[in-house]
């Protein structure tokens, strides 16, 4: 039983396992914290900036936030499945390398699957880099807002204003500006909602960065497995050719021995 456990533990692709754990952690942080941060943003815009949803099918900032939430749902489901697929691929590749001289045979289809995963993981890595860059935008916006709140308490009599038009949240024709002298600004700075939303976006940014690292880790693992499988295929072909030549030599030797025996008799 102990030997079986050691054999099972030896077949676990630990590199793929670490990358999968990192991917799940990053996606969970990004999706969970990003969803809650978007909900907090909606509350801040409606409560303190006195914004309302546009009537009809007009696309406004609230519609875009709802779209981002649905995208988050899709990302969570897609990468949950993709992490499982990469783990399965890691198990099969590890088994192919370890059982090279056994009954397991490395097929061309398996090599094509590994190459496909490498290409797909590279595309996902670029996508997560874009997501990380995009997630840094709300972090920058909230950092500006948080800095204005801090400067208001430090500088007495200062009058700072924040206009949503400079961030592209509203159109140029709409004036959604909030200044430090207004009651809404003071209430917003004193509330925990602003601080919580700001830190949720920071954690979501960290989760996106962790997903990028996981994709890079997967690329290294898949590339190494591809190289090992390719060398294993060559070794397998060499062993097959060697075995065939030995069998031919054995048949030739047997034939000559029979001919000599017949000639002698």
From TrEMBL:
One of its GO terms (biological process) is neuron projection development. SMART domains: PLP. InterPro entries: Myelin_PLP, Myelin_PLP_CS. Keywords: Membrane, Transmembrane, Transmembrane helix. The chain crosses the membrane at residues 12-30, 70-92, 113-137, 200-228. It is a multi-pass membrane protein. It holds the Pfam family Myelin_PLP. It is found in: Cell projection, Dendritic spine; Membrane. GO terms for cellular component: axonal growth cone; dendritic spine; filopodium; neuronal cell body; plasma membrane. Signal peptide: none annotated. It comes from the Eukaryota. Interacts with OPRM1. Interacts with palmitoyltransferase ZDHHC17/HIP14; the interaction leads to palmitoylation of GPM6A. Belongs to the myelin proteolipid protein family. This is Neuronal membrane glycoprotein M6-a.
């Amino acid at each position: 039983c102990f030997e079986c456990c050691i054999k099972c533990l030896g077949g676990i692709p630990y590199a793929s396992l670490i990358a999968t754990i990192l991917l799940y952690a990053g996606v969970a942080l990004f999706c969970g914290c990003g969803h809650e941060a978007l909900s907090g943003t909606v509350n801040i815009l409606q409560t303190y900036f006195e914004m309302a949803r546009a009537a009809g099918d007009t696309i406004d900032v609230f519609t875009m936030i709802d779209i981002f939430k649905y995208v988050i749902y899709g990302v969570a489901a897609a990468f949950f499945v993709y992490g499982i697929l990469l783990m399965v691929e890691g198990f099969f590749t590890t088994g192919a390398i370890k059982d090279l001289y056994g009954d397991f045979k490395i097929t061309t289809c398996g090599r094509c699957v590994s190459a496909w995963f490498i290409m797909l993981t590279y595309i996902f890595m670029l996508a997560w880099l874009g997501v990380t860059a995009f997630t840094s935008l709300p972090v920058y916006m909230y950092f500006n807002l948080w800095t204005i709140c801090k400067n208001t308490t430090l500088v007495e009599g200062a009058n700072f204003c924040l206009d949503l038009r400079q961030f592209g949240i509203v159109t140029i024709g709409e004036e959604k500006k909030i200044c430090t002298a207004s009651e809404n600004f003071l209430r917003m700075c004193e509330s925990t909602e602003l601080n919580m939303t700001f830190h949720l976006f920071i954690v979501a940014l960290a989760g996106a960065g962790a997903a990028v690292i996981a994709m890079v880790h997967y690329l290294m693992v898949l590339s190494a497995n591809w190289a090992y499988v390719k060398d294993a295929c060559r070794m397998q072909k060499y062993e097959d050719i060697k075995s065939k030549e030995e069998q031919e030599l054995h048949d030739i030797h047997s034939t000559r021995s029979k001919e000599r025996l017949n000639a002698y008799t």
